[in-house]
Specification:
Elements lengths: L1 E3 L8 E12 L2 E3 L4 E5 L6 E6 L3 H13 L6 H17 L1 H12 L3 H23 L5 E3 L9 E9 L3 E4 L7 H13 L3 E4 L5 H13 L7 E3 L8 H6 L5 E5 L2 H10 L4 E5 L4 E5 L5 H13 L9 E7 L3 H12 L20 H16 L3 E4 L3 E2 L2 E2 L2 E4 L6 H4 L6 E7 L2 H8 L7 E5 L3 H10 L4 E4 L26 H7 L1 E9 L2
Parallel strand pairs: 2-5, 8-9, 8-11, 9-10, 11-12, 13-14, 13-20, 14-19, 18-19, 20-21
Antiparallel strand pairs: 1-4, 2-3, 4-5, 6-7, 7-22, 15-18, 16-17
Helix pairs in contact: 2-4, 2-5, 2-6, 3-4, 3-6, 4-5, 5-15, 9-10
The chain binds nicotinamide-adenine-dinucleotide.
Length: 488
């Protein structure tokens, strides 16, 4: 990704290169300043986006506020449902675009498009549900013969900022609930993966979304993202991304609602009674899927000392099945990370862990933005690669003595997004459910398991506890008004 005023050398262009624009309320913004999006695997230019400046922020805000017309529930349902059909028809096209701009392998990109269809489906259904509550008031000596009713009104303007790691699904998780709620939204997608986001916005316009409901702006952070976050007319900022930027946004946003979905450092805890094949499978899927670039990816494999050797041997064999290479090859299971600097960071934290006594049992090599799925044992508890978030296909193994030690170790970082536990003992499972300080505890599943409408989100540095997932996001994007009537 690079901002440029120049045309690129012909040798670097690909035939299928696409040129897209930012959109202000459905109108394409043409400008001479372009953002180039680079394929992290082969360094070709995938496409360009004409970018916007501060004046477009004001235009987009005015368009959302002045153009507003309430959409009926049926209209909101219809847009979401039509978009779901359009996305299904173009599934391959979207998957190839995700792979080209992010380096995620094509099988992950296909999976992501399916998840995004689920989000649209669930949001369409929610748009049809009435969400009011009724409170009878004659329920105490202080009561009256009245009833109180609740209605949810859409917020007047939402700002949404998304990360690169699920170029489509992160975007759909903001846009679909906003449409279901009837709330206008301005999206600032990741500058590393903007093409998928803009293509999806075009799908929504084609599905009949009124233009004032959505603008998509890309530009320098100081010109677009920060003015949007600070804008006094924005009633909510919904941000998914890193802890550092999330906390910065919390500092500059001012008086408005905030939804912050930040980094993770999920443990998979493997108890001594665990079914070893299940544990090995979950550890590998959790650590390597999506090139390890999921906020809920397994970042720490915590294994009972009693089964450490047996687990490590089997896991290393399993990890070797995760072939890495050309992301567009259907046989590839692990594509690149987002760019070469990200891969170099991962290499650096690996080297630091090795200097502290860790041993690389498999992988460990880097080729450009490609990092081999890597199994590392004897990782010290204070190694940077496990204390901070390592956003890549690294699988560090740490051991624990007993359940108290496992809980302390799992809770020892500043993150609190998700966790997984492999055990067949119900009392053990329930103790983890009670004592792990994470937004999710999945028993005999990867930490990342969810459905798109269940509540999702972390605590501590992973988030303020305001959840996402289709239903919770719709709640965030609306304001509850009560009214009361005499009743009898
Ligand atoms: P990032 O924080 O670098 O960027 C996220 C977005 O913020 C991008 O669109 C970026 O342009 C924008 N941004 C950058 N500086 C900004 C500023 N000063 N003001 C406003 N916006 C700004 O994150 P990333 O590298 O794109 O994504 C990876 C991170 O996202 C990881 O930490 C991962 O765990 C996290 N993540 C969290 C969840 C979750 O649900 N908790 C989901 C996916 C990813």
């Amino acid at each position: 990704m690079a901002y440029s005023d120049q045309t690129m050398p012909a040798s670097k262009q690909k035939e299928e290169m696409i040129h897209l624009c930012s959109y202000v309320a459905g109108k394409p913004v043409h400008s001479s300043k372009k953002l180039e999006v680079i394929n992290p695997y082969d360094n070709t230019i995938v496409g360009t986006v004409s970018i916007t400046g501060r004046e477009h922020v004001e235009e987009a805000v005015s368009a959302a506020l002045n153009g507003y017309q309430p959409m009926s529930r049926y209209e909101r349902f219809s847009v979401l449902d039509k978009a779901r059909h359009l996305l299904a028809e173009r599934r391959e096209e979207f998957a190839h675009l995700i792979t080209a701009e992010s380096g995620l392998c094509i099988r992950e990109s296909m999976y992501e498009t399916g998840r995004s269809s689920d989000v649209l489906h669930f949001a369409a259904i929610e748009a049809l549900h009435d969400d009011g509550e009724i409170f009878s008031c004659d329920i105490s000596p202080n009561g009256k013969a009245r009833k109180i009713f609740t209605v949810r009104e859409p917020l007047s303007l939402i700002v949404a900022i998304t990360p690169f790691n699920h170029p489509l699904n992160q975007v759909v998780h903001k846009l679909a609930p906003a449409i279901a709620a009837g709330a206008p939204l301005i999206l600032k997608p990741s500058e590393k993966t903007p093409l998928t986001a803009i293509k999806f916005a075009e799908v929504l316009y084609e599905a009949g979304l009124p233009p004032y409901m959505l603008s998509v702006l890309l530009g320098e952070t100081s010109e677009v993202a920060e003015p949007l976050v600070r804008h006094p007319k924005a009633e909510l900022v919904s941000f998914t991304g890193s802890v550092a930027i999330g906390k910065h946004i919390a500092g500059i946003a001012g008086y408005k609602k905030l939804v912050l979905e930040l980094g993770g450092n999920a443990p998979l805890i493997i108890m001594d009674d665990a079914d070893l094949d299940t544990a090995v499978y979950l550890a590998a899927e959790g650590a390597f899927r999506n090139s390890g670039q999921r906020c809920t990816a397994v970042k720490r494999i915590l294994v009972s000392e009693a089964i450490l050797d047996a687990f490590t041997e089997k896991f290393t064999e399993k990890a070797a099945e995760y072939t890495c290479g050309d992301p567009s090859d259907p046989e590839t299971r692990v594509g690149t990370v987002i760019d070469e600097p990200a891969a170099m960071y991962l290499e650096d934290v690996m080297n630091k862990a090795v200097a502290q006594g860790a041993r690389v049992l498999l992988g460990g090599n880097r080729h450009g933005a490609l990092i081999e799925p890597t199994v590392i044992s004897n990782v010290p508890r204070d190694a940077q690669m496990v204390v901070q978030e390592s956003f890549g296909p690294l699988a560090p193994i740490l051991s624990f003595k007993d359940i108290d030690d496992a809980i302390n170790l799992a809770n020892s970082t500043s993150f609190g997004l998700s966790s997984g536990v492999v055990t067949n003992q119900m009392d053990v499972a329930l103790r983890f459910v009670r004592e792990l300080k994470t937004g999710t505890v999945n028993i005999n599943e990867v930490p990342g398991y969810r459905i798109e409408k269940s509540p999702f989100g972390g605590r501590k540095d992973s988030g303020l506890g305001v959840k996402e997932g289709v239903i919770e996001a719709i709640k965030s994007f609306t304001f509850v008004k009560t009214f009361s009537l005499p009743w009898g």
